[in-house]
Amino acid sequence: MAKITVSLDSDLAIEVMLLSGTRSPQDAVELIVRDYLARGHRTEARTGDAADGQRVTQHRPPVQEG
């Protein structure tokens, strides 16, 4: 897997390390990002995506006025 380098404010890196319980800023950020992505996948699995909205709505023929 390719790796990238990202610069962060030291206060932000320390806060992420405290939240994740790690001693390495790199490990902390990786855990936070992986958790964020996993939550997104779980949410999509529960709610579906934008295309699912068309699947569940009822397509009613237009009401004829006259």
Descriptive labels:
rod-shaped; 66 residues
Walk me through this protein's architecture.
The protein has 66 residues and is an all-alpha fold. The protein has a domain at 10-45. Helix content is 59%, strand content 0%. Helix 1 (10-20) crosses helix 2. The model has no long low-confidence stretch (mean pLDDT 81).
Number of helices: 3
Work out the helicity level.
55-70%
Return Rg in Å.
22 Å
> What general form does the structure show?
rod-shaped
Give the low-pLDDT segments: none
SSE string: HHH
Q: The biggest beta sheet, please?
A: none
Structural class: mainly alpha
Question: What is the beta-strand fraction?
Answer: under 5%
What number is the mean pLDDT? 81
Distance between the termini: 64 Å
Count the E strands: 0
Summarize the structure.
The protein is mainly α. The chain has helices at residues 10-20, 25-47, 52-56.
SSE layout and pairing:
Blueprint: H1 10-20, H2 25-47, H3 52-56
Helix pairs in contact: 1-2
